[in-house]
Amino acid sequence: VMPSSQPSDLADRLTARGLVDDGRWPGYAIATDALADPPPVDGLEIRRVGTLEQLDTYIGVYAPILSPSPAFTELFVRAAKRIGFGDDVPEEHHVGFLHGEPVATVSLVTAGGSAGIYNVTTVEAARRLGIGAAMTIAAVRRGAERGFSLATLQASSMGRPVYERLGFQFVCDLHPYRER
After folding, report:
1. Which residues pair with 98 in a beta bridge?
2. At 7, phi and psi to the nearest 5?
3. How far is CA 114 from CA 29, 54, 99, 109, 149, in A?
4. pTM above 0.85, yes or no
5. Is 39 within 8 Å of 168 (Cβ atoms)?
6. Contact status, residue 139 vs residue 152, Cβ threshold 8 Å
7. What strands lie across the sheet with 114-122, from one edge to the other?
8. By the 8 A CB rule, do 6 and 108 touch?
9. How many CB atoms lie under 10 A from the CB of residue 180?
10. What local confidence, expressed as pLDDT, does residue 109 receive?
């Protein structure tokens, strides 16, 4: 639920159906041409997922960090397989390799007039090296290549300072709802 959600009493309707507000997720946006270049990360290579084997590598990094459940991971994989890996698909995934080892993920969803940045993860041993910023910028730039002039994301408490340093601006709070 966000400020523009319709109907205006959507939060009340979801609560009446037994769902609970899962907290505040700050929403951010930036013009894709306004990003600052981060310092390069020595040994980082970002590769777009283009095969099922590469999707397995993505899931191996993403799922332990960000997936809420094995059932969600299974649904995510089924959706990714169905969407496919073509150049014009609305959702694409990327894996960051540090010195050849998979350590980070990011997903790009091009829909609704913006380049949505999702699933920015970095394994704990590779954090605080600038990898999350590099992954985010790579996805925003890919969105710009695809013709999108606006990038959006929802920030975790860990990611928020990174995104703000990159120039993302707070837009609104999002409130996801979940089953009890």
Report:
1. 44, 101
2. -70, 165
3. 9, 25, 32, 8, 7
4. yes
5. no
6. no
7. 44-48, 91-98, 101-111, 114-122, 150-154, 25-31, 169-174
8. no
9. 5
10. 97
**Tokens coding 38:** 């981060």
Q: Which amino acid is at 177?
A: Y
Tens-digit pLDDT profile for residues 47-77 = 999 999 999 999 999 999 999 899 999 999 9
Mean pLDDT estimate for the chain? 94
Confidence grade of residue 24 (pLDDT, cut at 50, 70, 90):
confident
Strand pairing report for 150-154 and 91-98: unpaired
At which residue do the structure tokens 């790009």 appear?
108
Buried b (16+ CB within 10 A) or exposed e, 120-154: bbbbeebeebbbbbbbbbbbbbbbbeeebebbbbb
Contact indicator for 161, 176 with CB cutoff of 8 Å: no
| Alpha-carbon gap, residue 163 to 180, rounded angstroms | 31
pLDDT at 36: 80
The C-alpha torsion from 86 through 87 and 88 to 91, rounded to 10°, is 70
Segment 8-20 mean pLDDT: 93
Residue type, 5: S
